[in-house]
Amino acid sequence: MPEKHFVVQWPNGEVESCYSPSSVITEYFHDGQSLSIQEFLEMSEKGLNHASERVRQSYGFSCSSAMDQLQKIKTKAAQFDQHDAQDVRVIKVSN
Fold this sequence. Notes:
Blueprint: E1 4-9, E2 15-20, E3 34-36, H1 37-59, H2 64-77, E4 87-94
Antiparallel strand pairs: 1-2, 1-4, 3-4
């Protein structure tokens, strides 16, 4: 199961590399994509839960690293006003 990283730029300009244990994350994010903070949170939750489920199907246990990454994203997103027109940009999805 090929792991992927998706590099994002937060509204404050900070760039962060995020981890997914499965390439299924490419169904949710692509290079150059801009999402509102709320959309990014929703897609991250769906994508990382899907990735963790793929790990569970293959190995019999969920991926705690995917859940840790999701928690980091939620914590970071909480720093921004989700009602402002602030976007998170997906810079790159890679191995």
